[in-house]
Amino acid sequence: MILYPAIDLKDGQAVRLVQGEMERATVFNDDPASQAREFVDAGCEWLHLVDLNGAFAGAPVNAAPVEAILAACKVPAQLGGGIRDMKTIETWIGKGLARVILGTVAVEDPDLVRQAAREFPGRVAVGIDARGGRVATKGWAEETDVDATDLAKSYEDAGVAAIIYTDIMRDGAMKGPNVQATADLARAVSIPVIASGGVSSLDDLIALRDCGVALNGAISGRALYDGALDLREALEVLKG
After folding, report:
1. What residues are annotated to the active site?
2. CA triplet 217, 210, 6: central angle to 5 degrees?
3. How far, in Å, CA of 76 to CA of 105, rounded?
4. What is the pLDDT of residues 205-234, one digit of tens each?
5. Does the reported pTM lie above 0.85?
6. 223: which of 92, 195, 208, 234 lies 20 to 30 Å off by Cα?
């Protein structure tokens, strides 16, 4: 199981939100590329990047820090937030991004997701962000009536590389992930699933690893910044 350290970008800085609320942002590093290098030096194999401003704007906003991270680090990175058209997908992959994460358009424009997955095999992930089992879009600001599992199932034949499942109520709250909901989603589809939201300790990672279904990985942010989770130790545990 892969541990994906998260770098959430707001106004050019590395921050963490609580339950996706922009006004509840804590700045952890004003040099995101430096933060990325710290994670890579500790041994991470992937980076998880989110353009928070872009998620609300519907277009890339924090392109400069993302490009700086890609230039500074040789491990693959995945990026979500504001990626809502083919041109943006092509641009980011052309700049060396390993994987784009499509969230809002996964609900609003599934044909785009399918087209992108065909044109860029292995490089398109679907981000499913849910509150109470229902998908939220546009930076989690808009609620939908779409069931998270139904949305995941709708992409079974699309060729997407992964589904990133986030329980919004757990995100940044340091209360542990929703292991049951994540495991249930992973059982419902054959697409690799990455857990996100609330991963705050080694016990959380072990619970996800041993949830009864093989997950591709887990994303953690605030716990790594706060020191509640030691990245080197976590990587060793997951390798073991």
Report:
1. 8, 129
2. 25
3. 23
4. 999 999 999 999 999 999 999 999 999 999
5. yes
6. 92
